[in-house]
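Data availability excerpt. The first of two example chains:
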Amino acid sequence: MPAINEKTGHKEPRRMPKRLTAIDFDSSGLHVVHAERNGAGLKILCAAGRRIPDSLALNDPSAVGRFIASALAELKLAGSTAVMCLPRGKVVLKQLRLPPAVSSDEVAAMVLLQMQDDLPFGQEQTVIDHIVLGDMHSRPAGQPDENGKPSVKPGDGEKPRQEKPDTQSPASSHPPNGSSGAGPSGAAESQKDPARAPQAGLDVLVAATNRDTINFYASVAESAGIKMWGLGLRPLFDAFAAVYCPVVKGYDCAAILHIMGEQAEIAVVERGKLCFSRSAVLKVPAPAVSSDVQADADQIVSQLIMETVRSLQSFQAQSPESNPGIILTAGDARIEPSLRQALAKKLGIRCEGMEPKVSGLPSGEEQLACVSAVGGAMACLSGNGQNAAGPRNDLFDFTCPKRPPEIRDRRKVRALAAAAAVVLACLGSVLAGHMYLSAKRDRVANLQNQYDKLAKDNKAVKAIKKNLDEIEAWNASQRDWLDHLANLSGLFPSCEVMYINNLRSEGDNQFSFQILSKSGDAITEFGRKLAAFGYEFKPGAITTAKDDLGYTYRSQCRVTIPSNMKLELASIRWEPRPANDLQAGEVQRPSSDRPGGNAPREFRPSFTPPATTTPKTSPDKPAEEPPKTAPPSNWRSFRKTR
């Protein structure tokens, strides 16, 4: 959504486009006028209208924007630069009297100062713009104004106006006094007392609306896919269009009655400038209440006459010397001819249709319907004799309101500069500290990675050290463990009777192992043999378990070696190995045939393996294979390796 440019004003001029699309929509319909600048004049390239569907929600900016986009696409105007019309009912108008000979900056500042206490909503939620009317009421009668036109009446002067705000809010259509200009004052009093005669000054018309309204139209433009160049006031656009109507020539003051849907806007144009405007809600009968079209039209005409009379009386109350000489009607209510006749008969004033003479503009009812859009295009493209760039002092633009320049205090500027320097110094320190800490963090991260790598490598070193400590402890015990193992092997019965499992050393002088035996007496006898030899034998409980080879008896035993025990290995006689012992054949192999180089000392068993004979074979009968005897699957034995 485009934001409101409140700082643009007259310091940042905007270039007037060469072509512009004016869009005016309300509950009655959509009116589009596409025009271009033609030298100092204006040329209408396209003027069309569309009826608003009953199903279209006018309070939904997206739906309204899509409807406008489809209409512009049909007219081949999609994506064009556009100006939109803001209804009178959404704007608060007030006419101010300012001191003469003030600059545009001072005018904007005085407007904001005087309007801050007269708004129905907060100033931070308000968009305020103004137009300069000039010195309209203090000029001597009979002298021409800035447009070269004479004043309304000759006289001795004009009474000053009281600054009274329009209390009509954007949601209301009936102000208490219906006025947008100054309040009345007694003309007779100013004639009696010359000291109270009006002084020279500057008349300014101020318009204010809330930001939500501006944002609504900005959302509509965004949904329609157009670039909103400006947002003006519809009665002011009607006043621009009235200047181009031939019927207005010869009249210094004219009234405009614009009918649209269920409301009407009444404005008064004096010397080509808008000086009064109000809106009125029409109580249109519903179709279910009355089916008589003519009766409904007569009721609407009566309401319009009443609202017009009320508005003219309000205007004459504040400006008794100004009397509209003609009433112009515009809109597409289809009752304009009968309304003009009734107004002329009621007020005795000339009533004509509002038909500005512009190149390319169609005539008839279609021209009356799009008169506001025509006025918007005229106001934005013609420039009214002003420069094409910069602010328009005679035009409301709520997207670019006029603002006073910012007054700079040098002391504050210096203080802000010093504060900025301090902030920059702090930021520099923070940045330097951040860079220093980042370098330190990177260093810590690298060291942590190195530490993790060394810790991972140190695990293998710790394992080697543990084994080394165990070997050193073993050597420090001064025990010949291998001799004791050999001695125990000699004391151990044949493996066909018993074998051990899970052999391990405990402490400095103990062995623990599990005995698996074919009988419980063999375990007891083995314990006695160890005790007789000098070992301390502590057998555990003897249990039984199923075993495929018959070793059903089991016991967890512990053997303690005395410290002063002496061994004589020469007297040991080991039990012979069984014939199917594969370890016996491995021990008898020469050392040169063994893988791994040097082999332990040759071990000569105390038994001779039985000789094997090869059975004789005959051609008719194959040789019988010797029976295969598998070694026990779970037996173990010790052998001397030193």
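And the second chain:
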Amino acid sequence: MRSSLLCLAAVLLLSPDLFGQHHDHSAPCGTSREDLDQITEQLVQNLAVLEERPVDLRNGAITYVPIKFHIVRKSDGTEGVDTEFVLAMLCGLNEFFADQEIQFFIKGGFNYINNSVLFDNPKGTTGVTVMNNNRASGHLNIFLTNQTGEADVLGYYTAGQSYSQDYIVIRKSEIGYKKNTLEHEVGHYFGILHPFNGWECDPWDAVKHGNPLNLTTAPCITIKPPFTNYPLVEFADGSNSTTAGDLVSDTPADYNLGLGWSNCNYNGGARDKNGILLNPDEKNIMGYFLNCAPYTYSPIQKQLIATDLTNRKNAVSSSNRKLNTAAIPILEPNSPVVALSPVDEGYSNGTVDIKLEWAAGAGARNYIVRIDRFASFSFQPRYYYTDQPEVVLDFVLGSSGKYYWQVYAWNDYNTCPVWGEVFSFTVGSPSAISALPGLDNLVIMPQPLGAGQPLQMQLAATRPLELDLEIYHVNGHLVYRQARLQVPAGEHALSPGWIPAHPGMYVVRLSANGGQYTGRVVVH
């Protein structure tokens, strides 16, 4: 079968931030005042609708929202975000929205844009033009760029005049599992403001703004009628919460107190105009408090999102706000993968053009494959992306030892990072392998080795070993010996101490308890 794949450089490592680490937004959102004014206008309409018709958030009907991810790379096609980071980000987004019965899926695959200007400056004229030309109708459009055009901005939503743009931009560093920037910007996309609306450009400062506050209108006033000289400053007791701040009554007053605050318990002493202490919600995803996960939307924010989603579903097809939610993605989960060739713990029967084949469940449509000399995949992993249950390795295997490989199956909806079973094979054929009991793998490096450069070894032991190391010139002359080398169980990087003085071919031999491992190293 045909295999469409991309192999990354052998030294590429998966960041621990990809699937396991959370990031909390401490840098500002770049949604402009003009866009916030556009959101405000829509929000006022949604609040009026919500007042007439409260929303049932748990009616059992999930809305599936199509996403178009635009992966922006340099003009030469390099340095775009890797697929697995995007999949992990979508996984986190769906987990965040699960209680709202809203789920997102990739519709029509990824769109790759090779444009160095957009890559680093999406807010510039060229960047905006390219994004407008690539925007996919009926989708939530998300552009994944290297930078956002502003040094400290992690991402932003832009509506554009009369929703002429209506897309989200996320910088590369914020793409991954539950980094929270996308969840924040999706809130803007569905018509939600910051709880500190009006304080984006000038966070509260006691010296500048007074304590108690001496303002009635927030510093960052709107520039769009009919909201001229809005927003008003929200009071701590919530008495004007429906006409000031973010207009949402269950989000406490916040004068951008999270930006720069070091923890999740605000006690900075900010007082409103009436002298009442502020008590902001540090866990609201639309705020700026750091390291306060799990974040959430407030109950009314969730109802407003549902209201705006309905508006988008019902919009005319020519509107940029239109979301086509009729399509249902593949909902089958990704079943475990079974190795077919080489069989698990079998042999490669060669060192070149080795094909890895597997069987996957019905829900699998795409695959990420990784292979390395160690089961931790932390040495020199190579990654392949394919839509077929096979890949052909595009490198020459080492002359001996084990390789480990693993498959992560996904489809347009089920993108959460679930790596399958770790499979292994030994290079060569059964008759060509010498064994040293307890030594699971060994890599001699670098290859080739420079004269005067110390030999390094990376090995994995299944139990503690006491090894004898001998190094011979290919002519049979012993050049180095180290007895009783102690190796604990596990993976280790060792420097035996041999520094070759002369070029040539050398044989490295490890022995213990009647077993032996032999490898070669070239010195130039």
